[in-house]
Amino acid sequence: VQLQASGGGLVQPGGSLRLSCAASGMVFSINAMGWYRQAPGNQRELVATILKDGSSNYADSVKGRFTISRDNAKNTVYLQMNSLRPEDTAVYYCNAQNWAFSYNYWGQGTLVTVSS
User: Fold this and answer.
1) pLDDT digits over 41-50, tens only?
2) Which of 50, 61, 79, 114 is at a distance of 20 to 30 A from 87, taking alpha carbons?
């Protein structure tokens, strides 16, 4: 499975960005897809995940501001980020897991910078 992420960039506080991640290869092996992020000096942390049935999970820090969605026909996951804060600045990584949740696939990171 290969994951190709896009959509990062520079945005002012309070602004919005949308990240996309397209999966290719053995996509039938994937159940969960999602996003993690890593800020300088910090560990990588969960942002949001979504299963193939549409059920989702969010980090408390992004609840109400970020929305994860998925197009199974396109094997693509999206992260709509609204009301962005400087503390959301990080490299965002696309993630996919197999049906047993025993293996992780990672995309290349995409940098999100929230700054005035």
Assistant:
1) 999 999 999 9
2) 50
